[in-house]
Specification:
12 strands, 5-stranded mixed beta sheet, rod-shaped, single chain, about 450 residues, 16 helices, alpha/beta
Length: about 450
């Protein structure tokens, strides 16, 4: 049975050997394209957050938890606030960060390779004033002249914004005594009476906001000209803090407050992997889509309210929802199949031309088993032809033995039946050389009768 199987119409082994170099080349090029053209998303990312007890810090923790479910580690990089986050993005110290609207403009963002993943929530400008019963209440920003106000630390978004607002009211820089403390120590200074007020921008979820809104003797400033501010500064919106929103039972606050608010935006470097962009936008949709003090259900996240160009992947999400595959697969599996188009392009470019090489290689490999013996056969003929007169008979006998060895080895050659004609041709040529040597031996022998060559 094994002898029968030895003779087949086709040799899979030879096909595999002939195709191996081509297959290895295709696999190598595809792997190179897979990793260089569209590399796998990194498993860690640096997120610029904010100060201690800030809304940026609180939301940063939520993003870290959301991405950890997909095996991506989020390293939170604290900062003074929006301006420092923007600077860290430019310097490459973070990959993505919370940035307040109005911190930059479209031209600068494009020049610096930054893109928005959407606006997340409004973060009003909160101005908390320490009440002094012996003095008239502060109802206008011009009443802040001569007061000690904490603008926030260098690198936060509030100092720049508050300076712009004071300029609109005609309040000069040196007319207000400025402090630049972080939010937590500034709150301590306010409660101790060593400063008259503090200002910062934040979402209402920040613990300091919640505490100050319920602290006796601390009053929130009412921006009753909020609509005018929103008209003069397009990146601001007019929002209302409703009466009783903090505590309905105690009616805190006891009245409606007008506030002006920029929006918090998730800003990324242009080299952030598109798959991570998808993850962050999906996390934002979960974290920020609910109703809040200043927003309706589903209002955020949004491609609106940002002066920074929105990333193409993020814009696609806001228009069509999450990628199709990620609705039914894990993030990493969906990402793998999504990147397979690179392999398809590479395979299409290689398989067709390289596949034309395999059949000739296969044929050459099979025929080479026969052809290599022709070299041996030609060597036998050459030795016979060049045999010296004195040792001619000895050479003839040696080459006959060599022909027997060649014939025995040739009989062990296994080739597909479709190439058997070459093998039988070789065997007939061996017989032809043998007969010629015998003829020459007959001529060289003195007692030999005259022979006729076959």
């Amino acid at each position: 049975m094994s002898k029968i199987l030895k003779f087949t119409q086709f040799s899979l082994r030879d096909l595999f050997v002939a195709a191996a170099p081509t297959v290895l080349l295709i696999v190598g090029v595809c792997l190179l394209a897979y990793w260089l053209v569209d590399p796998a998303p990194p498993r860690s990312v640096r997120l610029g957050t904010g100060q201690e007890n800030s809304a940026y810090e609180e939301f940063g923790k939520k993003y870290a938890a959301a991405l950890a479910k997909h095996g991506v580690k989020v390293t939170m990089v604290p900062s003074a606030g929006s301006s420092e986050n923007l600077r860290n993005l430019r310097d490459g110290k973070v990959d993505i960060a919370f940035v307040q609207s109005g911190s930059t403009n479209e031209e600068a963002a494009e020049r610096e390779g930054l893109s928005s993943l959407g606006s997340l929530f409004v973060e009003p400008l909160w101005l908390f004033i320490r009440e002094d019963k012996s003095k008239p209440p502060i109802t206008k920003l011009t009443d802040l002249r001569g007061k000690k106000i904490n603008y926030g630390p260098k690198g936060a978004g509030s100092p720049r914004l508050f300076r712009q607002i004071l300029e609109l009211n005609g309040v000069e820089k040196d007319e207000v005594e400025r402090f630049s403390l972080a939010n937590t120590p500034a709150t301590v200074e306010l409660l101790e009476g060593r400063i008259d007020g503090l200002v910062f921008t934040s979402a209402p979820e920040a613990p300091l906001i919640q505490m100050l809104l319920q602290t006796p003797g601390i009053k929130l400033f009412d921006f009753n000209q909020a609509e005018a501010y929103a008209r003069k500064m397009p990146f601001l919106t007019h929002v209302m803090l409703p009466q009783g929103i903090v505590d309905l039972g105690r009616n805190i606050p006891s009245e409606d407050y007008n506030l002006i608010a920029p929006t918090a935006t998730l800003v990324a470097r242009e080299d952030l992997h598109s798959a991570l962009v998808d993850l962050f936008v999906q996390a934002a949709s979960t974290i920020h889509s609910g109703a809040g003090w200043f927003q309706q259900q589903g209002q955020f996240p949004s491609a609106k309210y940002t002066e920074i160009p929105v990333d193409a992947e993020a814009a696609k999400f806001y228009k069509s929802g999450p990628p199709f595959l990620q609705r039914y697969m894990t993030f990493w599996l969906a990402n793998f199949f999504d990147r397979m188009w690179v392999l398809v392009v590479a395979l299409g470019a290689l398989i067709l031309p390289l596949s034309k090489v395999i059949p000739p290689l296969y044929v050459w490999r099979i025929r080479s088993r026969v052809y290599k013996w022709y070299g041996q056969l030609r060597a036998v003929e050459q030795r016979v032809e060049e045999a010296p007169q004195a040792t001619r008979m000895q050479v003839y006998e040696e080459q006959l033995k060599r022909l027997d060895e060649i014939e025995e080895l040739v009989n062990q050659v296994s080739i597909p039946l479709s190439f058997a004609d070459g093998l039988y041709g070789l065997r007939s040529h061996i017989q032809f050389v043998r007969k010629r040597i015998l003829f020459l031996m007959g001529e060289a022998s003195p007692a030999a009768p005259e022979a006729v060559p076959v």
